[in-house]
Structures are given as C-alpha cells and as structure tokens.
C-alpha cells in the first residue's frame, strides 16, 4: 500500500517529494498519516499530468474496453449492466462468454440511442430498455454482488462506444466493495422491475416514476462515498453542497453546465475568494453558464476547439488541502436541468485526498491542452447552437466557406457566406457533428451535439 505523510506545522502543509513516497519518517511534530484506499481504483482514457501532484500518480488506460472485458471475464456468479449505449462487440462477446460459463446476466439500456452491439447478445440474455420521457443515461456495472471479497462496481462517465472509450475524454471509477454496490443494485432492480433474472415490465420504473429508496452515504474501507440517482434524489442540491464546501480550490470539467444553481454556487465561492478553474465542452450551448464565468473573471475555458469531446462530469474540491475535505464528484450526471429532472443518472461523491489528486492530474492535462489550442486561435467568430439551428456570426466582410460534417467525415452541408449564416439542423439525427469555417488564412472547427 502506498503511504503518504503530510506534516501539519502551524497550519502549513509540507508535502514530501515524490522520491520519498514510500518512506515513513518519524519526527517530534504532530503527524497525520494518509494511505491510498486499495478498494477504489481510478482510470482515465487520455494522458494525465503526473507532475501536477506529488501525492500519487493517476493512471491512463488507452484501451478501456480491454479493462471492462477483464472484469467481465473474472465474474463468477452475476453481472448487472445499466449502460446508456453499447456499440463495442468485444464487450458483447465477453458478456456472451460469461453467460456461457454460467454467469447470470441482466442488462438495462436506453431506447433512444444506438445499442447496435446488443444485437449480438445471446438471445437468452434478458435486456430491458427505458420507457420514460428522459433517457436512461447511467454507466454502471455490478459484478458478483453478495460475494464480499469479489464484488466490483464500475461507474464513471464512459459509455460502451468506440467514441467514448477511445476518442472522447472520460473517466472510470472502480470500487471493490459490496456495500457501495448495494444502492446501485436497488436502483437497478427498480428499473428492472424485479429481483429475478426476468424483468417485469409492468413493474419497471424509470425517470420520475422511481422513488428515493437507496442508502446514500457508504463507508468504503474508511472512505466516505455518497451515492445519488436522478431524477429522484435531488442530486443537483448535493453537488451544490459540495461546491459550497470549498475552502481553497475548486476545479471542474463538464460536458454541459447549464444548471443555474450550480453556476450560482461556483460564482459565489469565487466571489468569496476561492480559486476556481473550469472546462466546458458545450460552452456555447443555450443556457450555458460559461459567459457568466468569463464576465466575473473566472478562469473558464471552452473545449469546443479541442479534438474529440470532453465527456467528463466531474469536479474537484480542495485536492491540496488534506485538513479540509478533498472531494471528487463524478458519474453520468451532466450539470443540466434534464439530468436533474428527467434522466436516469448516477453520481458518486468521493471524500478522498488521493482520488482528488488523481482527478487533478487529469484536469491539469486537459487545462494545458486547451491552453495550447487557445494560443493558436486566430478568428473570433460567434458560434451559437440552439435545438434546431446553428448560427455563425461575425464572419467579417470577406466570404468564408462553412461546412458541416458527420463525425465519420460525411459532408452534410456547405455554403459560402460572409457576415452571418443560419443553418437549419431540424432533420439531423442525434449525434456529434463538426462545423468548419474556412478562410484564406486558416480553418477553424467547432463541434456540436444534436
């Protein structure tokens, strides 16, 4: 087990250098000893900055599908999947193999997105899809619940698609703990409609039909972890409480940030003296809190111009203040009203110094990346996306070529305009699209999600 010593002398924190991580030093001053929790593993699918923290090294795994397959392969009795979408045939093959060796499989998916890989599932494996107006947006897997030494809970922001596993920026948190798997199982069976291998569709509850019926505070081998499910558990208010608990530093990386109460909480802690830095993928979407942060002087960045999608939904509180309450919030819950009020979502709030430092190493890598992109931007077009329209303004007096491509490179729209253009996207299918604006001097691209 990795040991880290932090010395508190007159309220100052002295961090031992990296090369001394495995040394135990006894001195006459008061000592607080922190150890990394071996029941919690954190993985990121993109490079991390291990120099950003002297406490611990975050881990990048480039093939998260292989990681998922390895856990499915070691299952002995049961696996429950509650996963938004799955287009990865390698994962599906592993599920079939598990079923063939006698593992009980249950699978919940979303009805409003692509789940093409599920067509390859053994026909004897039961699958149920949501029937609510919102989406079933969870990303969690429960393996061997009820076997205390073998139970595994996998959660985070990662969908089971090639784009989410390999291209987009995502995290995966794995708990080796039966206690924290229990509320996830209760939530699963509420959507499944039964506790058996066969779903009961007449009793299955999704979205606002569910109730707040799970334990919320779990002790995972000495680490406090809070668990909340949307839209029943008031998740946004719990995240507001986390933000308000900040004493020194607050960092966030969000796909969406349109929920006003969260934006207000961030603005308040900044106004009260906390250091705040943040990244938002959909910074220009309708209702985004991004411009209000910029206007106040918060160091916030749009991730639009960075290749692939910032798909994270995490924040970090006080990662360098061990005598505060270092926290990470992550899961499937975007910081939006839809996630709060309609969708089936899961959120974990992890009170752990080591986990906070791991996520900070991920955050600093993304911050450096967006800084590099900001340095090369040469134009200042206004790009606005609404539900059914793309508007690009400030194109200048000279003609620009505006094009829209699907994520696989198919040209869907092209026009020559100056000053202003409005593009109807009403008939575009759900998915990710690329807009390029080409001038004589350069090409600038934007991403949007329909």
Strand content: 25-35%
C-alpha Rg, in Å? 23 Å
Q: What is the C-level CATH assignment of the domain at 64-209?
A: Alpha Beta
The helix count comes to 9
Helix content: 10-25%
Structure description:
It is built from 9 helices and 26 strands. With 450 residues, the chain is an alpha+beta fold. It has an 8-stranded mixed beta sheet with strand order 5-4-11-10-9-6-7-8, with helices on both faces. An 8-stranded mixed beta sheet has the order 12-13-19-18-17-14-15-16, with helices on both faces. Helix 2 (89-100) links the parallel strand 6 and strand 7. The longest helix is centred in the C-terminal third of the chain and has 24 residues, at 353-376. The protein starts with a strand and ends with a strand. Mean pLDDT is 89; it is low at 1-32.
Question: What is this structure's SSE topology?
Answer:
Blueprint: E1 3-9, E2 12-15, E3 31-35, E4 40-44, E5 59-60, H1 64-73, E6 78-83, H2 89-100, E7 104-109, E8 126-129, E9 139-143, E10 152-156, H3 162-167, E11 171-175, H4 178-192, E12 217-220, E13 223-230, H5 235-244, E14 249-254, H6 260-271, E15 275-280, H7 290-296, E16 299-302, E17 313-317, E18 327-331, H8 337-341, E19 345-351, H9 353-376, E20 382-385, E21 389-393, E22 400-406, E23 411-417, E24 420-424, E25 432-438, E26 443-449
Parallel strand pairs: 4-5, 6-7, 7-8, 14-15, 15-16
Antiparallel strand pairs: 1-2, 1-3, 4-11, 6-9, 9-10, 10-11, 12-13, 13-19, 14-17, 17-18, 18-19, 20-21, 21-24, 22-23, 22-25, 25-26
Helix pairs in contact: 1-2, 5-6
